[in-house]
Amino acid sequence: MFSTRMTSAALAAAIAFAPAARVAADGKDFIAGAIIGGVVGSQIQKNVDRNRAQQQPVYRAPAVRQSGTTKRSYRSSIPATQEGREIQTSLNYFGFNAGTVDGQLGRQSRSAISDYQSYMGYQPTGQLTSFEKELLLRSHNRALAGGDQTFRQIAANPEGTRGLLKTYRAEFASGASTTTPGSYNQGALTNGF
Q: Is residue 192 very low, low, confident or very high in pLDDT (cuts 50, 70, 90)?
């Protein structure tokens, strides 16, 4: 780095203090000068870019004070998935606040899952078992497909929308189906779900 600066300074001084003389160049000299100028310009631009990268501040997560200790919070690296979006949408529909539907099952979604599990009488782990996930997603799809019948069930249930989960689970467990032909939209699943 130091030698580059010294070379640049020496070259600049030689050009500045050299006597002006008439110079004639042919096409070959012009091409050679253009190539050399391009190489030098490229190196200068690389140095400028490198210096900018070194001078830009590095993102540091803000420190969060919790009971006398400092804890850093970082953005989640959890990948967003379609299944994650469906789970969050279903949780929000039934009143378990999973936050913004972004497909990332982060802290708020895990809390909503725990609330769902507690409400349903399952162990509140924050991690859905395959049965719990299927019940949640199928209940949501059934509620959406139910139309007016769903609204009547919500109105008749003292627990409101959440009460649908227990109603659908009971129907699923008994193998009974409260659906009649034509009561759901064409694509809806029957036999309780």
A: very low
**DSSP at 58:** P
Q: Cα separation of 175 and 139, whole Å?
A: 15
SS percent in the chain: helix, strand, coil, step 5: 60, 5, 40
CA–CA separation, 88 vs 102, rounded Å?
8
Question: How many helices (H) does the chain have, and how many strands (E)?
Answer: 7, 2
> Tokens representing 7?
């070379």
Dihedral Cα 44, 50, 52, 58, nearest 10 deg:
180
The rounded distance, in Å, linking the Cα atoms of 167 and 121 is 14
Would you list the domain boundaries of the chain?
A: 82-174
pTM comes to 0.52
Residue 175 CB neighbours (<10 A): 8
